[in-house]
Amino acid sequence: MVTHISTTPFGRRMLTLAHVASQVDAKKRPPGKAVHKWNIFRAICTAKNRLGVTERALAVLDALLTFHPETVLTGEGLVVFPSNQQLCLRAHGMPPATLRRHLAVLVDSGLIIRRDSPNGKRYARKGRGGEIELAFGFDLAPLVVRAEEFEALAEEVLAEDRARKLVRERITICRRDICKMIAAGIEEGVPTQSNGQGPDWMTLHELYRSIAGRIPRTAPRAALEGIATELSLLADEILNLLEDHLKTQNPSGNESHSERHIQNSNPDSLTDLEPRSRESRGAIVAFEPEPERMPERTYPLGMVLDACPDIIDYSRGGISNWRDFQAAVAVVRPMLGISPSAWFDAQSVMGESEATVVVAAILQRGEAISSAGGYLRGLTRKAEAGEFSLGPMLMALIGSRKREKQRA
């Protein structure tokens, strides 16, 4: 009767101290301890980065678990002994060389233990009653021994994911609040300085852009929390400016402000911060009953938003049509420092729809353009001479965003 259990791998595979440690831990397993194999597998999948295993290695572990006949892992019979051919089939047709590589990953990470036979084959010896007396293959005992460790790691990962999601939600809300409060302050002419002291709205907007520009696509939670705190402080400061302005207004001013707000509260009406001609105002009134459609001589809205996503931050409730897009651009124009005359010239030469897209593109380029008004005038002159086309500008922005994603 064989009483010695294999502890070393067959062939050229080397034994490491980590392998010995896994075998020592397996010996400490209480005989009566039982765990649900699929619950433990889900915990390992959640904590895979902490454990240093890949998705392909987990697919092999999943296949190994299917060779254990019971759902509950307990007792001594935890060695499974499938052939490589059967393992490859259950691992969705994985090539043999890939299978061997990922089996080594599972062994090195301490999830399974090799119990190799004298010739390296996997098989089981049965007694006279048909019960398995000795098996050579892969021992699943570490899954039972380390069950609590796997579950604790999974909880930590889930808690970290929840915390990261919350801080990203906080950043999104702060960005939306700051953009819309700055837009409201500019539209209502709220003063920001007392006795010539303090920043103006453009300075606050530049401060916001500098903070928002440091938000990485992928970052640890600690880095995101620092940015969220900065945005929260800035949002509180801007809100205090608006509240202080309301406190200084007299009741009649509040009443007239409320009446003006009610008259302009229709979300379907296009808010224009620049003066228009009588004909233009009349055109808007006549246009309201018509269904939404894409303006003539412009590009699809989805393509424009793909090239200029920053304009969405300045919308009231997202941009789902061209009217929403034009309303957001009307908020952005004075924030960029574009004068009414520069805007009127751009509309006259390019057309209103193309001019609004150009303003969104200028916003997207951000600090790369020192003077938005002067830049718009330069583009207007080029368009008047037939030397400017909107398409290459949009494609350049889309290409730049794609390159940023690839670098990230």
Helix content: 55-70%
What would you report as the Rg, rounded to the nearest angstrom?
33 Å
Give the structural class. mainly alpha
Number of helices: 18
Low-pLDDT runs of 5+ residues are 253-295
When the domains are counted, the total is: 3
H/E series: HEHHHEEHHEEEHHHHHHHHHHHH
Measured distance between first and last alpha carbons: 60 Å
Molecular shape: elongated
Protein name: Plasmid replication protein RepC
Region (Disordered): 247-282
Pfam families: RP-C (PF03428), RP-C_C (PF11800)
Domain Plasmid replication protein C C-terminal: 300-398
Describe this structure as you would to a colleague:
With 408 residues, this protein is mainly alpha-helical. The protein has three domains: 17-145, Arc Repressor Mutant, subunit A (Orthogonal Bundle), CATH 1.10.10; 161-248; 278-407, no CATH class. The chain has helices spanning 17-27, 37-46, 48-51, 55-66, 84-90, 96-108, 141-145, 147-188, 201-212, 221-248, 251-263, 278-287, 301-307, 322-336, 340-350, 352-365, 372-384, 390-407, and strands spanning 35-36, 72-73, 79-80, 113-115, 123-126, 132-139. Strands 3, 4, 5 and 6 form a four-stranded antiparallel β-sheet that branches. Helix 16 (352-365) packs parallel to helix 18. The longest helix has 42 residues, at 147-188. The protein is elongated, with a radius of gyration of 33 Å. The two termini are 60 Å apart. It comes from Bosea rubneri. Residues 13-185 form the Plasmid replication protein C N-terminal domain. InterPro entries: ArsR-like_HTH (IPR011991), RepABC_RepC (IPR047611), RepC_C (IPR021760), RepC_N (IPR005090), WH_DNA-bd_sf (IPR036390).
